[in-house]
Design brief:
Length: 357
């Protein structure tokens, strides 16, 4: 950090969650001053405590809901924010099919409330957590940001709806700078083993399921489909280490800072507008390849069986990461082995996640 670095203050909604907690550390290391706002609906205070211990400073934390206009206004009145990183949202695809209103209310109405309060306090810089799910089943690979968007479940639709809202907002008023980061498949944990992904129930996603099989909490993995036209018949995804993803957020904020600095601003009316950017590694890994690497780095057998395809799954999905590289100067550094090693470290140090028993 250079000596004349100006510490900008950032509101991190959903900062107690999996990606948010890792990003808080990266932001702190990059010199940003942060306030975390989270209703703890899918996270715990222990995550915040551990982040505080890791950074050697008590994180400023507000327990609150993004749909609570009054509380948000209090927080914005108290702090002078440069911008917001908006992680807060519900993310379980299956649950969203059963409870669509909850998902639209939380993810879409919640974001509208946040944007209204930001507007009122003239905070117009936002980094939004979008997802590769907005691409649905892609026509071509790797997926570029200009690819068509379509998705079939309420969770994905809620991300898409927010993207459309952000686009309209940017058109309506060019003082908004709205970056939509489309994450591919975030996995892994902080190298310390102190923070990581802590699913509430039986995991839906591959990596946490594999690590719970490895530790003996779950008996065996079902691989959903071995008849896809992929390298070995199993699904292919672009797994990205959560630490790399966290750095992607720092790069996005740095970019926002640069682009909104007075010299650049004076040359162009709308330096950013609505800007979608993929955060992926650009490489696809199959389910079987991931299991094999996990088994190698952990020394644990991962028993599995083949099962039928999971409804809504696609064969292959991986990013073009050129835009992130060219615009943000960011690219993923860590390998699949690093992702498996750090997941295993977190899982074996915290067999019950943040619940200490
Ligand atoms: P997470 O559930 O661990 O974190 C989300 C956080 O938001 C939680 O701490 C939760 O308590 C909080 N939250 C939810 N609703 C809230 C509300 N109304 N008000 C305040 N706080 C609220 O999930 P994550 O994996 O860290 O994901 C972060 C974001 O990234 C989400 O928006 C998610 O949709 C998106 N995303 C995640 C993935 C993934 O695979 N993990 C992939 C693509 C996009
Ligand atoms: N898989 C299994 N068995 C399991 C779990 C997953 O075989 O028990 C397979 C899936 O069929 C898929 C691959 O592992 O082929 C990855 O599945 P995940 O559930 O880990 O991830 P998805 O790609 O299905 O979805 C994830 C997030 C979504 C997000 C999407 C973005 O869960 O929220 O990435 O691409 F929208």
């Amino acid at each position: 950090m250079s000596e004349n670095f100006m510490k900008n203050k950032i509101l991190v909604t959903g900062g107690a969650g999996y990606i948010g907690s890792h990003t808080c550390i990266a932001l702190h290391e990059a010199g940003y001053d942060i306030v975390v706002y989270d209703n703890l609906s899918n996270s715990s205070r222990e995550a915040i405590n551990r982040v505080s211990t890791l950074i050697g400073e008590t994180i400023e934390f507000v327990e609150g809901d993004i749909r609570d206009n009054e509380l948000l206004r209090e927080v914005f009145a108290l702090h002078e924010f440069f911008g917001v990183i908006h992680f807060a949202g519900l993310k379980a695809v299956g649950e969203s099919v059963v409870k669509p209103l909850l998902y639209y209310n939380n993810n879409v109405s919640g974001t509208i409330t946040l944007l209204e309060v930001m507007s009122e306090y003239n905070v117009k810089n936002l980094v939004f957590s979008s997802s590769a799910t907005v691409y649905g089943d892609p026509d071509t690979l790797p997926i570029e940001e200009s690819s068509k968007r379509s998705c079939a479940n309420p969770y994905g639709q809620s991300k898409l709806a927010v993207e459309y809202i952000l686009e309209d907002l940017a058109v309506s008023d060019d003082s908004w700078n709205l970056i939509s980061l489309r994450y591919f498949n975030p996995v892994g944990a902080h190298a310390s083993g102190q923070i990581g992904e802590d699913p509430n129930d039986i995991p839906n996603n591959l990596m946490p399921y594999v690590s719970q099989v490895a530790i003996g909490k779950l008996e065996k993995l079902s691989i959903f489909g071995n008849d896809y036209s992929t390298i070995d018949g199993t699904g292919v995804r672009d797994f990205i280490h959560v630490t790399d993803l966290a750095q992607g957020h720092v790069a996005a904020l740095d970019y926002l800072e640069q682009q909104t600095s007075s010299e650049i601003y004076s040359n162009t009316a709308s330096p950013i507008g609505f800007l979608p950017i993929n955060l992926g590694t650009g490489k696809g890994t199959s389910v079987l390849e991931l299991i094999s690497t996990f088994s190698d780095v952990s020394g644990q057998a991962i028993p599995y069986q083949f099962a039928s395809r999971r409804a809504g799954d696609i064969a292959s999905c991986y990013a073009s990461s050129e835009k992130a590289k060219n615009l943000l100067g960011w690219q993923a550094e860590l390998s699949i082995a690093d992702m498996c090693k750090d997941t295993w470290h977190w899982q074996s140090m915290n067999p019950n996640g943040y619940t200490m028993s």
